[in-house]
Write a structure and sequence with these properties.
single chain; 9 helices; alpha/beta; TIM Barrel; 259 residues
Amino acid sequence: MSRTRPLIIAHRGASGVAPENTLAAARAALDAGADMWEVDVTVTADGELILMHDDTLTRTTDAASRYPDRAPWAVSDFTAAEIATLDAGSWFTPSPDSPSFAGEHVPTLREALLFTREHHWRINVELKALPPDQAAFPLVDAVLALVHALGMEEEVLISSFVHDYLREIQKKAPRVPVAALIGCGAEDQVDWETLMFPAYNLCALRAPQDWIRRLRAAGRGVNVWVVNDISWMRYFIDQGVTGIFTDYPGRLYHLLEGE
C-alpha cells in the first residue's frame, strides 16, 4: 500500500487545549494546522441544532449551578436561548497555567458552519442519536437545509453511528459526503458485503491492519479516532489511513511536517 498523508482532523476542535465543541477549540485547531475540525451535533428542546457531545449539559457547562432545579439537565429539556446563556468554558483547565476560557458559549451549528466557511476550512459534522423524546425530530432534513442554505456541500462531511441517517443523506443530498462511524464494541461492524459508504471512521482501538487494507483497496476512506500518542500516529500513517482524529492537531501537524 502506498504511503499517504492523512488529513489532520481536530476532534471536537483542538479539544486537548481548548474546551470541546466551542469556537475557541475551532480557532486553536485552525492555528495548529488542522485540515478540518469535527463537531458533535444535537438538538435543543425548541429544535435548534447545537454543538454538544453529551445528552446532558453537566460535564461541559454550568447548567447545574445555573438551573439547580432542572436535573438531570438533559439537552432536550433546555431551549436554545437558555443554553446560549451557559458558560461552556470555565470547566476546562488542562493545566494550572492554561488560559481561562470563562464565558465561552455553546455554539449553534450555524455558527460553526459560518466559522468554517469564513476561514475556507472543512468540517466533519457528527449527527448524534437523539433521545426517545426527540425521535420524531427530522435531524437529517434540518442539517441538510442549513448546509444547502449556506452553500457548503463541498466543505461539510457528515458522519454518524446511526447509519440510517447516512443512507437518508445519500438519497436526499448525494453531493454531501458521508462517513460511517464504527465504534469500539463488538456489535459495530463494517458492511463488508456492500461497502455502501465512501468513508469509514474507525475506532483506533478496533482498526486492525486488514480492515484498513481492505477498505483502502476498495477505494474507501479510512479515518481513525482518537489518536493522541505520537507513536500511534506514526503507526496509522504507515498503514495508509486517509485521516486521523486527534485532540492535539498540532502534534500531528508537526509530525507530518517533520517527515
